[in-house]
Design a protein that fits this description.
- The chain is α+β, with helices and mostly antiparallel strands.
- Helices cover 33% and strands 25% of the residues.
- The chain has eight helices and nine strands.
- The strands form two sheets. A five-stranded mixed beta sheet has the order 1-2-9-3-8. Strands 4-5-6-7 form a four-stranded antiparallel beta sheet, with helices on both faces.
- Helix 1 runs parallel beside helix 2, helix 3 packs across helix 4 and helix 5 crosses helix 6.
- The longest helix is centred in the last third of the chain and has 15 residues.
- It is globular and about 60 Å long.
């Protein structure tokens, strides 16, 4: 990815995934020359909220402003049973997903996304709305499995994408088609399709997004014991 990190203001591309068993060594490693380009706008993602102190210390040393976001992480019970069987056993959680929503399949046709749909996704994505986010969405559509539901006009009314971390992201539905169970149906189709390919797929939502939380519980998706964390870093 280093060769793609050429735009100092593109934090969508300038992204680092971090996992460590030793936070102290991690701070030394991440602060070393040539590991992270702290002169760029960038983001760091991790399932370890304990890294916050490390990243805050590094940001202070590197003269970087940092803002953390946290979310709840979910996974299919079928996937969790392979990767985290003790979690399901300890909490007596379901081993199979719940039944997906029934939709009007004459009105809504299952399809994949086209790169020309990126502007639509960008318009409704919480982290989007700019030229750099649209380029990122275009690359995700071009390189990873996507699903959408085409409405009566033959254009997407609901969609689900995937990014470079195997996470289901950027899902959305046009306002006039909400409250019909479309995103619930679509995400379930998407996640199960990836599960059949042995992708350990997951997704996150924020504590304030009660709609996605309700959908996740209705589908028996497992709440993971770790958080989704993102640190957005901007040089001062």
């Amino acid at each position: 990815m280093d060769e793609e990190m050429t735009d100092d203001f593109d934090h969508y591309t300038n992204t680092y995934q971090v996992y460590t068993k030793n936070p102290q060594n991690c701070q030394e490693f991440l602060g070393a020359s040539g590991i992270i380009n702290w002169k760029q706008h960038l983001q760091i993602q991790s399932s370890q909220s304990s890294l916050n102190e490390v990243i805050q210390n590094l940001a202070a040393a590197k003269l970087v402003k940092v803002k953390q976001k946290q979310g709840i992480m979910y996974m299919l019970p079928e996937t969790a049973s392979k990767l985290l069987p003790s979690l399901l056993e300890a909490k007596n959680l379901p081993l199979k997903s719940g039944r997906r929503k029934i939709i009007n399949q004459e009105m809504f046709k299952l399809s994949s996304m086209d790169v020309t749909h990126a502007a639509l996704v960008n318009k409704f994505w919480h982290f989007g709305g700019n030229d750099r986010s649209q380029r990122f969405i275009e690359r995700c559509i071009q390189n990873f499995p996507t699903f959408c539901l085409l409405g009566p006009q033959g254009t997407p009314v609901s969609w689900s994408l995937m990014d470079q971390t195997d996470e289901i992201r950027m899902g959305g539905t046009l306002p006039e088609y909400r409250n019909k169970g479309l995103i619930s149906y679509l995400m379930d189709v998407h996640i199960h399709a990836l599960d059949k390919l042995d992708y350990p797929t997951y997704y996150h939502t924020f504590v304030t997004n009660k709609i996605i939380q309700k959908m996740s519980h209705s589908l028996n998706h497992i709440t993971l014991p770790c958080d989704w964390n993102q640190w957005h870093c901007v040089p001062l």
